[in-house]
Amino acid sequence: MNKDNINLIDTHSHIDMIQNISIEDVITNAQKNGVNKIILPCAYPADIDKIADIVQKFENVYAYLGVHPSEARDWNDSLLEKIENIILSNKKIVGIGEIGLDYYWDKSFNDIQKDVFIKQIKLANKLQMPVNIHDRDAHKDTFDILQENNDGSTVIMHCFSGSVEFARECSKAGYYIALGGVVTFKNAIKMKEVAKDIPLECLLLETDAPYLTPVPHRGQENQPAYVRFVAEEIASLRGMSLPELAQATTENAERIFKF
Fold first, then answer.
1. Domains in the chain: how many in total?
2. Over the stretch 56-104, which tens digit does the pLDDT of each residue have?
3. pTM over 0.70
4. Would the CA dihedral through 191, 196, 197, 203 be positive or negative?
5. Does 195 reside within a domain?
6. Does residue 2 belong to any structural domain of this protein?
7. Range of the domain at 64
8. Per-residue pLDDT reduced to its tens digit, 170-182
9. CA distances from 141 to 102, 146, 233, 252 (A)
10. What distance in Å separates the CA atoms of residue 84 and residue 155, rounded to the nearest whole number?
11. DSSP for 93-141?
C-alpha cells in the first residue's frame, strides 16, 4: 500500500504504448503512488485483441474498446460485432473508447469520423456501457452528436480542452470531465479555471500516458503513477486536501464503472 493511503484511479492511460519501462513496472509504480486502478483505452483496430489480453493478465487494469477518430478511415463495420463479442466475454472491458472527433491534424475525412463516432455510440447504448470521448478542436460537433445520438450511456470527456463555459454545458448535460497533466502546466490558465469551476461530482483524473506528462516530470514519458501530480494540483486549486480530492474522484469512477 502507498505510504499515505490515498486511492486514485487513472481513467485513461495507454500503458501499452509506454516504452521506457515494462507494464509490470508501470503498475508497481502506480500502486506505490496510490493509483490502484488503471483504464487502458483502445485507439487502433489492430490493437483490440492485444488490449483485451492485457486486461486479463493484470488484475487492476481495465479497458475501453473502440477506434480513435484519427483511425476512422480504417473502420470496418465488422468491428462492431468483434468489439461486442469481446465485451460480452470479458468483464474487464468497462466502456467504449476512445471515440469521438479530431479536427486538429486533418479535416479531410470529418464525415467519416462522424459516421464511425455515431456507430460506436450506438454500440455503447446497446451494451449499456460508458463512452470515453476524444474531442480535439471539435467541441460543437462532438457535443451535438452526443446530444442527438447518445441514449443512456454515461459520457466521459477525456482530456478535456474546452472553456469553462463548455465545461459547464457538459456537466449540465450530465457528462463527466476528465483532466490530466495539462492542468499542472504553468500557462494552462483555462484548464486551471475549469478545474476550479466544474462540480466535484463530475470530475475524473487521468494521465493519457505516455503523453501530456505533468509537472514536475514534463518532458519525460508519462505513466499512471503521475496522476498523483494531477490530483495534487487540482486539490490545491480547489482548496481541498489530496485525500478529499482522491476520494471524490475515485468514487466518481467507481460509480461509472462499477468496479
1. 1
2. 999 999 999 999 999 999 999 999 999 999 999 999 999 999 999 999 9
3. yes
4. positive
5. yes
6. no
7. 8-257
8. 999 999 999 999 9
9. 10, 9, 30, 26
10. 18
11. EEEEEEEEEE-SS--TTHHHHHHHHHHHHHHHHHHT--EEEEEES-HHH
